């Protein structure tokens, strides 16, 4: 005997209409459409169906996904307090996967250095010369000459 449903899905008429329209028209990601179809199948308020919503295994077979995914969709629906867009959409990442090396402060210090007069014996700054001087400054991380070039190009700084 299958276990009782822990997370039940109750869609309003407007949410149901929105999900039906999303699955039938427009251009959306396949994952978003699959989640929308799963929510429609899990809906306990479906006016076209008599009785309770089908089991997760049946819904998973109809939507062509796993029972775990169907369970996670129902769980996320209850965690977002019935927000359909938050359930079918992609979660935004809280932090980037890799912290940026060049922050605003580092960028400002690098531009300040590039706009200063070049060292004695040099007529102008080159990217490799800037790389050597950045390595000598303690509070700026060591940057490659190509990174320095990208930062300067981004801010339209020309080494003359």
Brief synopsis:
By secondary structure, the chain is mostly helical.
Structural class: mainly alpha
Got a strand count? Answer: 0
Question: In terms of per-residue confidence, which ranges show pLDDT below 50 for 5 or more consecutive residues?
Answer: none
> How confident overall, as mean pLDDT?
90
Strand fraction band?
under 5%
The shape is rod-shaped
Helical segment count: 8
Please summarize the sheet with the most strands: none
Instruction: Please bin the fraction of helical residues.
Output: 40-55%
Number of domains: 2
How do the SSEs run, as a string of H and E?
HHHHHHHH
Distance between the termini: 78 Å
Radius of gyration: 28 Å
Describe this structure in words.
This protein is mainly α and 160 residues long. It folds into two domains: 13-88, no CATH class; 104-154. The protein contains eight helices and no strands. It has helices spanning 13-24, 30-42, 56-63, 67-79, 84-88, 104-115, 127-136, 145-154.
């Amino acid at each position: 005997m299958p276990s009782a449903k822990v997370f039940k899905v109750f869609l309003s008429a407007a949410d149901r209409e929105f999900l039906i329209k999303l699955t039938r028209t427009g251009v959306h990601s396949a994952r978003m459409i699959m989640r929308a179809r799963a929510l429609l199948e899990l809906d306990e308020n479906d006016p076209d169906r008599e009785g309770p919503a089908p089991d997760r295994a049946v819904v998973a077979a109809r939507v062509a996904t796993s029972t775990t995914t169907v369970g996670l969709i129902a769980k996320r629906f209850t965690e977002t307090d019935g927000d359909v867009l938050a359930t079918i959409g992609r979660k935004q990442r809280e932090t980037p996967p890799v912290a940026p090396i060049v922050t605003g402060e580092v960028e400002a210090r690098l531009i300040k250095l590039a706009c200063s007069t070049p060292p004695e014996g040099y007529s102008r700054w080159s990217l490799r010369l800037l790389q050597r001087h950045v390595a000598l400054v303690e509070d700026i991380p060591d940057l490659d000459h190509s990174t320095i070039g990208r930062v300067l190009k981004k801010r339209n700084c020309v080494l003359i």
